[in-house]
């Protein structure tokens, strides 16, 4: 699973929260802030990503780019992180594997920040190669993780 049921339930519950409750829930995450529309917007971003996969795989388009907000590469199975609620690219990759039988997927991430969520999700999956091009600065640049260094590779 790319999103735990607990994470999904927390995200759903924020739709009816007041500002104080949203601040409290947001405080449980690193660089993530809930708004009553966050869950809806994140679902639309995932849906747009899946529609793009379908359009490319069906041949309706030759290629494409899902310019969606919120982004996704920091989100992990159990937690929102770095302005990301759901990991859109990971969901899209799994969808492509399941629906279209893809056996090898390359994810190239050229954001200035390391997409640790995507790395964690696929680091033990030999069918997905995740390549992130990001700033590290000796672990001083967010997300400031040792696994963001150049020598971190899949398991």
TrEMBL record:
<feature type="domain" description="Histone deacetylase">
    <location>
        <begin position="6"/>
        <end position="145"/>
    </location>
</feature>
<protein>
    <submittedName>
        <fullName>Histone deacetylase 10</fullName>
    </submittedName>
</protein>
<dbReference type="InterPro" id="IPR023696">
    <property type="entry name" value="Ureohydrolase_dom_sf"/>
</dbReference>
<dbReference type="GO" id="GO:0040029">
    <property type="term" value="P:epigenetic regulation of gene expression"/>
</dbReference>
<dbReference type="InterPro" id="IPR000286">
    <property type="entry name" value="HDACs"/>
</dbReference>
<dbReference type="InterPro" id="IPR023801">
    <property type="entry name" value="His_deacetylse_dom"/>
</dbReference>
<dbReference type="GO" id="GO:0019213">
    <property type="term" value="F:deacetylase activity"/>
</dbReference>
<dbReference type="InterPro" id="IPR037138">
    <property type="entry name" value="His_deacetylse_dom_sf"/>
</dbReference>
<dbReference type="Pfam" id="PF00850">
    <property type="entry name" value="Hist_deacetyl"/>
</dbReference>
